[in-house]
Design goal:
Chain lengths: 159, 760, 82
């Protein structure tokens, strides 16, 4: 069967790609567009390593088909920093040592940014529940949650 | 110098940003599945749907005929390996078994056991090929539970397995691979001196390491026999050695390039895909990429053993523990080699106890072959012993921390596994718990507090490091250990400390197997200790060379030069005669003073410092649902010396939370045909952020005299105490002793119902 | 002379159950040779599978480590790790 021709926006840039019907957005990002910062941990929507935003909505890209990207605006981890200027969450994750192996980190950062975009002043409990769909096996979440809450405080102070 | 005589350190003990950090927060870091080669094929594995089946035949002809399919392989494409014992991450194993686990030869021994593999130009073609392979199975009776596997008449996995360690040698095959007895003193006499004896049996479930990154690799076999492997693992040299052995290839023909590793915890101390990818590449003439799905990770890799732990512990009325006896039965999965040995030795190690006996059984069952998991074996025996000691404290009416303090191992006491302890921090971790505010927070109804202490040996082993001084005075430190949780940072910090320069001027790399000297794998909490020691030695050699270059420049003897804060300074009678020469100065002129400046150190580090930790947890039990909520969690641990305290805390927090998962939720659920029912993160539930509070840590530092900065391994100890600490807290909350893991809501609810029925 | 303690059945099977020995060996290599000569199989067992704790310091696989006069030596299964 012929591939689909999809026009979309990824990290602010217009992008066109071809994909099969059954290809997930995660497969398209990784295999067709070589944006491998978005990770596959389960391919069943359970781990959050493949988190992206679609029109600012947080999505597991393994649960979305590539064809569904048509006409939408997608953000991945590759678009989070502004050139060599890290996003405050990225910087704070480094300062807090909120990553060990780093495989879940892109998903956590994308999900955390989606949280702060909606709720600039989350409680610890709100942060923990928002991020409950992102699995980390290394850190026990402590330093991740601290990094997110401290970033929120900084960003509130700066705005 | 500090008052206690330890040298003032400028870098060690600080918290710089990790050198690989930006790559990992921007998505640039290349993990196992991120790498690709031009023209690569997609490799996939066909796995047995049966828990136990004889493979009568495999017909691959239809699969080979599918367009796009470039290679199909079975065990017939791998050399038959004779039995040869190897020392792998977990401990002793056998290469014949490793080969069989990589690809089943005559029998499939568990649901998920690899039986064939294919390489094709697309995932769709590979899937079609898997579906077209015809395997003729003769399904055999299977056995999943460890004690079921030990009874007479149980289905036998290996006809050639005769229990070793029993006298006389058995005449009939058995699923018990090995029986071992570890004994000190006179246990039976010692129990005669006890006023109180606690005796009980406990059970743990096998749990998976649960790394978020599935196994993945790319392999290329060239026409000249040269093999390139790019993969995520806990040791590129381990991958090289095992692929060479399993496929009969010279080590010099194989080059393994480590990619970033997305978690391992012991589970990536083995090869699964790499030998298959090499064979498929050889057959197809193309590079082959293979990656497991999450389902394959659960069905085909890891986990650690589940087991039963019978414990008997005796104490005098004053709380002196006088004797310990235990019987451990660990399931090893489909091939021999559970961590029952270290389970035995660690069982009573937190106690000053001279009369100890532990009997261990290594038992095969129709489950995936176990792999190492953080302090292999210790958490299982610790769950039994630390639960029993908690019961002892209740019988005695003693505070559980005080009881442990009264009996704790300390410097000069004989370890319950034999040797006399040197500098250890067991008591310090217990004191740290007592001193922490969590110890005195008032509890409400259905809330409880539990404590447990744990021990792990830590290891050293073979490591190499090369330090190159660049012409601008910066440095590159190359080692051969994958950075699984921040070790690049600690390597750079130790080099910077010796060289006397800013850590930002040191670039650490994890080199491939052809670019750096041999390093044993990343595991056993060894990297900061052993590879760190190699980094320090190589850096010291560089400093000696720098001093020699300064001496030449000044025309004074080398012993009249000192190295201070990154500068060569004339000393003794020459003091003040010359302007100090910085590392930059000496590097810039190195070509004219004898050539490039570099040093390598290769060593086999012995004397890893034993590690101790104590955990204190508060829980609240919902009697209605059986749900256990963790209210507060404190983990204290002796790190010897924390090189980068944030990553030490991180190891402690992560280990504790893995233990919480082990305690509350994680288990393998098999159906009556021996098929795994929960091979995914939805049903195999690891802890998520909303399950947890902050994990408080206290790092105590009792320096390890065998390491230049006093470091001891920290990665494994923190998974040892949590299960017993949780069970002890649940007992404190609802007055019920749970003896079987996981303490999941259905089990807790059932226990509450039984308690209520008994009270009526 | 060093005191050699065998805590584990993997070693005691070669000594007929004896748990304590003495040896004049001054290194682990020498100890392996001495044990093999006195209890055939035990030296090999130690070399291939056992860790040797000398006065409390664990030596996993180092044949060159020296055994001081009067040392307390424990033979233990070798340790791996996760």
């Amino acid at each position: 069967m012929a591939k689909h021709h999809i026009s979309t926006t990824i990290n602010g840039e217009p992008v066109e790609f071809l994909c099969n019907t059954e290809q997930t957005m995660l497969d398209v990002l990784r295999d067709e567009l070589h944006l491998t910062g978005t990770k596959e941990g389960c391919a069943t929507g359970d781990c959050g390593a493949c988190s992206i935003t679609v029109d600012d909505r947080l999505v597991c890209s393994c649960l979305m088909l590539g064809v569904e990207a048509e006409g939408h605006s997608i953000q991945t981890i590759e678009g989070m920093a502004d050139g060599d200027q890290l996003h405050p969450l990225q910087q704070k994750f480094l300062e807090y040592a909120a990553l060990q192996c780093g495989i879940c980190t892109p998903g956590f950062l994308v999900a955390s940014k989606a949280l702060l975009d909606r709720n600039p002043d989350p409680t610890e409990e709100e942060a923990r529940y928002w991020l409950a769909g992102n699995l980390c096996r290394c850190t026990g979440y402590d330093k991740i949650i601290r990094a997110v809450l401290d970033t929120a405080a900084d960003m509130r102070g700066a705005s | 110098m500090a008052p206690d005589g330890t040298p003032d350190l400028k870098v060690v003990g600080t918290r710089p940003i990790r050198p690989d950090g930006v790559d990992k927060v921007t998505g640039r870091a290349q993990f196992g599945a991120d790498f690709q080669l031009p023209g690569q094929l997609v490799g996939k594995v066909l796995r047995s749907p049966h828990a136990h089946a004889r493979i009568r035949s495999i017909d691959t002809s239809k699969a080979e005929a599918i367009p796009g399919v470039k290679a199909v392989m079975t065990a017939a494409d791998m050399p038959e390996i004779t039995s040869e014992e190897a020392f792998v991450g977990e401990g002793p194993a056998d290469f014949k078994d490793m080969s069989g686990n990589t690809m089943a030869r005559d029998k499939a021994l568990y649901d998920g056991h690899a039986v064939a593999a294919v390489a094709a130009t697309s995932a769709a073609a590979a899937d079609a090929a898997l579906a077209a392979i015809e395997v003729d199975y003769e399904v055999l009776p299977h056995v999943i539970d460890v004690e079921d596997a030990m009874v007479e008449g149980a289905p036998i996995l290996h006809d050639d397995m005769f229990t070793s360690g029993v006298d006389p040698k058995p005449a009939t095959p058995s699923n018990v691979a090995k029986r071992m007895v570890f004994e000190l003193g006179d246990v039976d006499a010692a129990f005669g001196k006890a006023d109180i004896v606690i005796e009980r049996k406990y059970k743990t479930a096998p749990v998976h390491q649960g790394y978020i990154e599935p196994h993945a690799c790319v392999a290329q076999y060239a026409a000249d026999g040269q093999v390139q492997i790019y993969c995520s693992s806990q040791g590129q040299f381990m991958v090289r050695a095992y692929v060479a052995k399993l496929l009969g290839i010279d080590i010099s023909e194989i080059r393994v390039t480590p990619l970033e590793i997305g978690g391992g915890f012991g589970g990536k101390t083995l090869v699964y895909l790499e030998p298959l990818a090499v064979v498929l590449s050889r057959k197809s003439g193309r590079p082959v990429k293979m990656a497991m799905t999450r389902e394959e990770v659960f069905r085909g890799s890891g986990p650690t053993s589940g087991g039963t732990v019978w414990v008997k512990v005796g104490a005098k009325r004053d709380g002196t523990i006088v004797a310990g006896d235990a019987v451990l039965k660990f399931q090893a999965g489909a091939y021999a080699g559970s961590p029952v040995g270290p389970g035995c030795m660690t069982a009573f190690a937190v106690y000053d106890l001279q009369d100890v006996r532990i009997t261990g059984y290594d038992v095969v069952t129709n489950r995936p072959k176990v792999a190492a998991y953080r302090a292999p074996g210790a958490p299982i025996s610790n769950f039994g012993v630390e639960s029993a000691v908690d019961e002892l404290a209740r019988e005695l009416g003693m505070d559980p921390v005080e009881l442990r303090l009264k009996n704790a191992a300390k410097k000069g006491t004989k370890a319950a596994y034999g040797p006399t302890f040197g500098d250890i921090g067991c008591v310090e971790t217990l004191e740290a718990v007592k001193d922490h505010p969590n110890y005195n927070v008032p509890l409400e109804p259905n809330q409880g507090r539990g404590v447990a202490a744990g021990f792990w040996f830590n290891i050293g082993g073979e490591s190499s490091a090369t330090v190159n001084i660049n012409e601008d005075g910066t440095a590159v430190v190359a080692t051969g250990n994958p950075d699984i949780g921040g070790s690049r940072a600690s390597m750079a910090m130790m080099a910077a400390e010796v060289l006397g320069i800013d850590v930002e001027r040191v670039r650490p790399i994890v080199a491939d197997t052809s670019s750096v000297g041999y390093c044993f794998l990343t595991g056993g909490s060894r990297v900061t200790f052993a590879t760190g020691m190699a980094v320090v030695e190589a850096s010291r050699s560089v400093v000696n060379e720098l001093k020699a270059r300064a001496a030449k420049t000044w025309d004074i003897p080398v012993d009249a030069v000192e190295w201070q804060d990154g500068k060569a300074v004339p000393a003794g009678s020459n003091a003040g005669d010359f302007e100090p020469l910085s590392l930059e100065d000496l590097a810039a002129k190195s070509g004219r003073t004898g050539g490039p400046i570099a040093a390598t150190s290769s060593l086999n580090a012995q004397g890893a410092g034993p590690g101790f930790g104590t955990h204190l947890v508060d829980v609240e039990v919902d009697r209605e649902t059986g749900h256990v909520k963790v209210l507060r969690y404190l983990a204290t641990q002796d790190a010897g010396r924390a090189i980068h305290p944030s990553y030490v805390e991180g190891q402690i927090q992560g280990g504790a939370v893995q233990g919480i998962g082990w305690a509350l939720n994680e288990e393998y659920i098999y159906d009556d045909r021996g098929r795994l029912d929960n091979p995914g993160f939805l049903d195999y539930r690891i802890p998520v952020a909303s399950d947890l509070p902050m994990i408080d840590t206290v790092v105590v530092e009792v320096p390890n005299p065998r390491h230049p900065y006093g470091a001891r391994g920290v990665g494994e100890v923190p998974i040892v105490p949590p299960m017993a600490a949780m069970a002890n807290a649940i007992q404190d909350a609802i007055g019920i002793r749970l003896t079987e893991l996981p303490m999941s809501p259905p089990k807790v609810r059932k226990a509450v119902d039984e308690q209520a029925a008994a009270e009526e | 002379m060093a005191r050699i303690v065998l805590t584990h059945s993997a070693c005691r099977q070669y000594t007929g159950g004896t748990a304590e020995l003495e040896s004049d060996a001054t290194s682990i290599r020498g100890l392996v040779r001495d044990l093999e000569a006195r209890f055939p199989g035990l030296g090999r067992q130690v070399e291939e599978s056992m860790a040797v704790a000398i006065d409390g310091v664990m030596h996993q696989d180092d044949l060159t480590a020296s055994i001081p006069e009067g040392a307390e030596v424990y033979l233990l299964p070798r340790i791996g790790g996760g």
